[in-house]
């Protein structure tokens, strides 16, 4: 387990990640990691993945395009 320190940054709260956490996540200074909810409900922090973002965008496009079908199926 790697501890992450939360610290005050102006009116916000920032997180300080140790070097080993950054290496494990595959991120570096200036990157934007994402906090997502996994299938088990647990929150997960991961690096940006272009392939996953394309799939999400495609899924959102399909849902927007076929909103009436999804609404009917949800009943």
Short précis:
The chain has 75 residues and is of the alpha+beta class.
Describe what this molecule looks like in 3D.
The chain has about 80 residues and is α+β, with helices and mostly antiparallel strands. Helices cover about 40% and strands about 25% of the residues. It has helices at about 20-25, 50-65, 65-75; strands at about 5-10, 10-15, 35, 45. The strands form 2 sheets. Strands 1-2 form a two-stranded antiparallel sheet. The chain has a two-stranded antiparallel sheet with strand order 3-4. The radius of gyration is 17 Å and the shape is elongated.
Features:
75 residues, 24% strand, two-stranded antiparallel sheet, alpha+beta, elongated, 40% helix
**Portion in helices:** 40-55%
User: What's the overall geometry?
Assistant: elongated
**How many β-strand runs?**
4
Largest sheet: 2 strands, antiparallel
Instruction: Give me the side-by-side strand order of the main sheet.
Output: 1-2
Topology as H/E string?
A: EEHEEHH
Q: How many individual helices?
A: 3
Q: pLDDT below 50 for ≥5 consecutive residues: which ranges?
A: none
| Rg over CA atoms | 17 Å
Mean pLDDT: 89
Structural class: alpha+beta
Share of β-strand residues: 15-25%
Give the CA-CA distance, first to last residue. Answer: 43 Å
